[in-house]
Amino acid sequence: MKNTSLYSISALVVLALSGCAQQHQPDAAAQLNDQSVMALNWFQQSGEYQALTYQAFNTATVAFDQAPSLTGKPKAVVVDLDETMLDNSAYSAWQVKANKPFDSKSWSAWTQAKQANAVPGAVSFAQYVVSHGGTLFYVSNRDQKDYAATVANMQRLGFPNVNEKTVRLSTGTSNKQARFDVIKNEGYNIVLYVGDNLNDFGAATYHKGNQERRDFVNKNHRLFGTQFIVLPNPLYGDWESGMAADYNKLTPEQKLRVRAAALKSWGGA
Ligand SMILES: [Mg+2]
C-alpha cells in the first residue's frame, strides 16, 4: 500500500513535470526556426562549407576557360547573388535568435544594412571572368527598391563591373528565364550559370515539386560542373517548398509535419 502510494505520487510528479515541459515547448514557428540551427552552424562554422564554395568556383573557372568561343558573341557568365556570391547567413541567424519568419520587410532592412559578406571564392572568380574577356551578369530576385544598397554592398566587397547593365534584379517574377533570354538576345553567349537554386539554371524546375526537380538533375547530370555550377545552401531554397504543394501557404504546424514526413528513415534496431 505504501509503495503504491509512493508510485502514485511519483507518477503525479512526473505528469506535473511533463506538463511544465510541454508549457515550455517552443511554439511551432519557433520550432521551424530552431530546425535551422545546425544548418547555420555548418554554413558559418565548417571548413567544409568553405571548401565546397572554393571547389565550385575553381570548377567554374575551368569551365569558363574551356567553354568554346562563338564568333561575334562575347562570352557571358550568369551568377545569382544570394547564397551564391553573397552570404546572408547573418540574416538567417537573426531569424532564429529573434524568432522571426522570413518576410520581405525584414529582408529589405537587412539588404539596406549592406552587411552581406562575400561567399568564399566568389570575388576572385568574378574578377577572373572580367579580366579574361567575359561579362558577368548578376541576375538576382532581390527587389528593385534595394538596387542601390545591393550595388553598394557588392562594390564594398570588391565585385567587379557592378552597374545598371550587369546587375539585373527582380522584374516582378522570380522566374529568371526571361532575364536570361534578354541577355542572349543582346548577343551574349552564356557559357555558364552559377547558383544555389535550380531556378538559377532556367525555367525547367520553376515551382515544381522535388521529384520533378530531382528528375531534372538526373537527366542533366553531365551539365553540372560544365555549364551549371551549384553552391551549397542548406538554409533555404525551393527544395524546401518542393516538399509539398503550396508549402509556403501552410501553417508552421503543417510545415513541421511536412518536414517530419519527408524523412527517409531506417526502421530501427
Ligand atoms: Mg540564391
Give a description of the structure.
The chain is an alpha/beta fold and 269 residues long. Helix content is 49%, strand content 10%. The chain is built from 12 helices and 7 strands. The strands form 2 sheets. A 5-stranded parallel β-sheet has the order 5-4-1-6-7, sandwiched between helices. Strands 2-3 form a two-stranded antiparallel ribbon. Helix 8 links the parallel strand 4 and strand 5. Helix 3 crosses helix 4 and helix 3 runs antiparallel to helix 5. The protein is globular. The chain binds magnesium ion. The site of magnesium ion (MG) has 7 residues, from loops.
Largest sheet composition:
5 strands, parallel
Helix content: 40-55%
Q: What would the CATH topology be?
A: Rossmann fold
Number of helices: 12
Our count of domains comes out at: 1
Q: Please, what is the CATH homologous superfamily?
A: HAD superfamily/HAD-like
Keywords: Lipoprotein, Metal-binding, Signal
Pfam families: Acid_phosphat_B
Protein name: 5'-nucleotidase, lipoprotein e(P4) family
InterPro entries: Acid_phosphat_B-like, HAD-like_sf, HAD_sf, Lipo_e_P4
